[in-house]
Amino acid sequence: MLIVKHFIDGLLWNFSSRLIKLSGTILLSSLLIINFSNNACSELPVVTDIRIGTNNDQTRFVIDISEPVEFNIFTLPSPFRIVIDLPDVDWNLPSDIMERRSSFSLGIINRFRYGYFRSGLSRIVLDITEPAKVTKSFLLRPNEGKQYRLVIDLEAIAEKKYLDSVELRKRTGAASLDKISKYRIYDILPPRQKPLIGDDTTSAVISKKIPVIVIDPGHGGIDPGSTSGRIFEKHITLAAAKEMKKHLESFGRYKVFLTRTKDMFIRLRKRRTIARNYKADLFISLHADAIRNKNIRGLSIYTLSEKASDREAAYLAEQENKSDLIAGIDLSVESKEVANILIDLAQRETMNESSRLAYELVKYIRKFSRTLSNAHRFAGFAVLKSPDMPSILIEMGFLSNRRDEKVLSDPARRAKLARVIGDAIDVYFRKRK
Fold it and tell me: Which residues have CB under 8 Å from 348's CB, separation 6+?
């Protein structure tokens, strides 16, 4: 094992003989939002420097980071780019990062961009001058006062292989981003489940980010929602949302916000915008239905339907202002084809996660409360259409059913239901760890 370690160190030494400081221009990325932070006390991993080196036909990209992290690497076409995904990090790069210049060659890297991508994810994008593959990627243990170093080696490949891998990614576009990364075989290293550090393998470490949950009490103001006598849905959803917020906050491991805290009208798309402004990891819209059949009762959970997803993706792709469609990503400078791919990938991943959430919640809630037999349903509700944020709509019951109405209108029983839903959400997040 020592031989392997010295061999790796030797590789690094060969590169370091021509290792250079940043030469590329830092631009506001079409895929990123710049998110500088100089908070040395942050609980997040901190990226402190970036270097580029060349050795023969290979280009080495080195990221100095304060602690080991999981990472994922994939490519984008037109233009050629390599994307490095990290968990949430703070960017504490040298103050002269934008002014650095060097006469040394940068190999196949023309420039790079970095910053916050979406909740739980930071991203670095390498603009490359020709098609390339990742030949090695590993994490080096600190030595001689240095920090951890994420090392990525790149090598040019034939354009046909690159385009073949891009075409394969298009054909698997309905899969999640993680699954797609595993399918690419020419230019991608599979995402590491455990990062390699020198000659050892350690458990993957992800920053302890507190999940942000946004609860949306349905209806409000001039929109009363469903009614039963003098009972209005808008009042029930607000009361339940406040109870759920209180219960989730009692765990001490969530930040919880409401889209409204009083009887007021908010447009549907505005509710999604509020959640995104909070950088929500989860969006929950609460409702109480009413139908003609008064015998039907029980809770149900909706996620976005396939048809509604396709329509929304088409709608987003046709918007003139593409600067803030996916967690602040500026798609306005991308080709229509690339924008469509990115929207579709983000939305598919979000739909998959929303469905997993709905499944876990239904499984837990039906142990304590009445649900419909087919409690996980699909629809095109506007509040479910965020392409970058797992979203569910919970119908807590039917005001048209006498027994459900009693549960929803009674403060104690409604609070109990809200706590059960909160417990189910807690189970979901604990399973994700």
Answer: 173, 174, 175, 176, 309
Nearest residue to 48 (alpha-carbon basis) of 34, 63, 32: 63
Edge-to-edge strand list for the sheet holding 121-128: 72-76, 81-86, 121-128, 109-118
Tell me which residue of 1, 415, 48 sits closest to 244, measured CA to CA. Answer: 415
- The answer, yes or no, to whether residue 173 has pLDDT greater than 50, is no
Backbone angles phi, psi at 329, to 5 degrees: -75, 135
Write phi, then psi, for 9 (nearest 5 degrees): -60, -35
| Structural tokens at position 292 | 């003609």
Give the C-alpha separation, 137 to 127, whole Å. Answer: 18
Helix (H) or strand (E) holding 137: strand 132-140
CATH classification code of 212-432: 3.40.630.40
3-state secondary structure of 194: coil
pTM value?
A: 0.51
End-to-end Cα spacing for the chain: 31
Residue with tokens 């929803």: 408
Candidates 319, 314, 308; CA nearest to 383 is 308
- Give kind and range of the element (H or E) at residue 133: strand 132-140
Give the pLDDT confidence of 103-135 residue by residue, as tens digits: 344 788 888 888 888 888 899 988 888 888 888
d(CA 400, CA 146): 66
Which neighbouring-strand residues pair with 238? Answer: none
β-strand 81-86 against 72-76: which pairing, if any?
antiparallel
Q: CA gyration radius for the chain? A: 24
In this structure, the number of other CB atoms found within 10 A of the CB of residue 193 comes to 9
User: pLDDT tens for residues 234-287?
Assistant: 999 999 999 999 999 999 999 999 999 999 999 988 998 899 899 899 999 999
Question: Can you tell me whether residue 417 is helix, strand or coil?
Answer: helix
In angstroms, rounded to a whole number, what is the distance separating the alpha carbons of residues 172 and 427?
31
Whether domain 2-201 has CATH 2.60.40.3500: yes
Give residue limits of the domains in the chain: 2-201, 212-432
Do residues 353 and 389 make contact, with C-beta atoms less than 8 angstroms apart? no
